[in-house]
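Budget justification aside, the reviewers requested a transparent look at the raw inputs and outputs of the sequence design task funded under Objective 1. We therefore reproduce one unedited record. The lines immediately below are the structure tokens for a 471-residue chain.
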């Protein structure tokens, strides 16, 4: 029934619309009805775009009749994050002081989603300045995890994770500088791709250019309930934008998937952080699935995640001390200010030009170590974090422990500093109890991640949207 179209994947919707079995208007009306039903409890979409979405859906149907599909997501309802430019709307980034930061034009994400034919239902929540693993702020309020209101929906793309898991749009857009796509995907029981740095355009003209480390580490990425939707989302977002100085052509990286088994280094336990047994069990479950599909899975320790995590905090933290920290202190809410104190706790201060440049140079050596490891093991199977999804607002609680927090987050937050792609896969996840694993590979080997993710998906079965539990 067309009233249930909000349950369909993006691939199913795109195929149905292109074949004329359904219309974009029907798909969009269904998605908007779902948003009206569950968003009041979740507060995932904080800038609804009902009128704009229906206008876009009608235009998509008209275009289809005259010239066929305009792109891989023609007529498909999606969401985008509120920290990227949507022409005529405020790019708030969850900051009260930016509530009137009206974008003059669409940024790369919105431009590419529209060019791919997608219908944007609304814009999703993020923590203040998009720099926490928890999603709430003084401007838009708190976003909740549909699996369990006491758990974080993740951050900073927690609105995208919550919306996608609950069926508000087939694909949610997020961005990731330290896990902000993969952690919400993990916490909300969906798939999330952090692509190789540079593949997906990221420009938002209303936002000042970021400093160099942030430019190198931050990426855009899709969240979805299927691997094929992750592929289609990444394909859509990879459209060329000359305003983005880092973008490189994606080629066929996000083309149709094949089956290419390879050697996999599985790390299910570590002495670098405490490991929850359920996390370890999910990793071993995923390893067994890949082995059954022809992958050669070996228990091998890759280069240190803790070393990457320490480096991420050192180099990004000191860059923040030179700019973003000041903005946070001036304009941030109290939770953001307390969270940044946790991030910088114990991080040495690089107080000279030479010290920072020498520290930045170390990035090359770390990346070489990982690239050489990937020559032997093209895939790494490990944790998204070594702990189950955290209780909401852990980072501002009286019990917050920086060593524990950054220890368990090391596989998630360390890898962006050297530009590696990563895929969060909901192995072991169930309604009310989100769980998952992470796949990592070398730069520009994103297709390898998706192909392995598709193997896991076939074994664990389809991820259906869930109704908010316990609200």
């Amino acid at each position: 029934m067309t009233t249930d179209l909000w349950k369909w994947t993006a691939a199913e919707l795109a195929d149905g619309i292109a074949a004329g079995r359904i219309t974009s208007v029907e798909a969009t009306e269904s998605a908007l009805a779902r948003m009206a039903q569950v968003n009041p409890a979740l507060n995932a979409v904080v800038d609804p775009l009902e009128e704009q979405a229906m206008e876009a859906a009608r235009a998509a149907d008209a275009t289809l009749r005259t010239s066929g599909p305009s792109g891989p997501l023609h007529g498909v309802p999606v969401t985008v994050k509120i920290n990227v430019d949507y022409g005529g709307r405020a790019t708030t980034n969850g900051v009260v002081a930016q509530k009137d930061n009206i974008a003059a034009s669409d940024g790369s994400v919105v431009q590419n989603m529209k060019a791919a034919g997608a219908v944007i239902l609304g814009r999703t929540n993020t923590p203040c300045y998009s720099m926490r693993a928890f999603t709430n702020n003084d401007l838009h309020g708190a976003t909740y995890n549909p699996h369990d209101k006491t758990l974080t929906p993740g951050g900073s793309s927690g609105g995208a994770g919550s919306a996608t898991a609950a069926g508000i749009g087939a694909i949610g857009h997020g961005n990731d500088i330290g896990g902000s796509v993969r952690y919400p995907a993990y916490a909300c029981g969906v798939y999330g791709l952090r692509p190789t740095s540079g593949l997906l355009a990221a420009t938002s003209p209303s936002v000042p250019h970021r400093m160099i480390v942030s430019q190198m580490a931050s990426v855009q990425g899709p969240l979805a309930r299927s691997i094929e939707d992750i592929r289609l989302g990444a394909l859509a977002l990879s459209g060329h934008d000359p305003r983005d100085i880092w973008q490189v052509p994606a080629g066929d990286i996000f083309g149709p998937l094949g089956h290419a088994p390879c050697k996999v280094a599985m790390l299910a336990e570590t002495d670098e952080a405490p490991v929850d047994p359920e996390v370890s069990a999910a990793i071993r479950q995923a390893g067994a699935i890949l082995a059954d599909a022809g992958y050669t899975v070996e228990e091998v320790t890759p280069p240190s995640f803790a070393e990457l995590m320490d480096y991420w905090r050192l180099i990004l933290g000191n860059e923040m001390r030179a700019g973003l920290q000041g903005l946070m202190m001036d304009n941030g809410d109290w939770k953001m200010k307390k969270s940044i104190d946790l991030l910088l706790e114990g991080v040495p201060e690089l107080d000279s030009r030479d010290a920072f440049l020498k520290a930045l140079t170390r990035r090359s050596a770390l990346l070489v170590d990982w690239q050489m490891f990937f020559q032997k093991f093209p895939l790494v199977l490990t944790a998204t974090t070594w702990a189950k999804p955290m209780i909401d607002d852990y980072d501002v609680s009286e019990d917050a422990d920086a060593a524990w927090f950054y220890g368990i987050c090391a596989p998630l937050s360390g890898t962006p500093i050297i530009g590696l792609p990563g895929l969060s896969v909901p192995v072991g996840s169930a309604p009310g109890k989100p769980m998952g694993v992470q796949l990592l590979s070398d730069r520009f080997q994103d297709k390898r991640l998706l192909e392995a993710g598709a193997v896991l998906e076939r074994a664990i079965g389809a991820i259906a949207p869930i109704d908010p539990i316990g609200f």
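The chain is about 40% helix and 10% strand. The mean pLDDT is 97. Computational costs for records of this kind are itemized in the attached budget.
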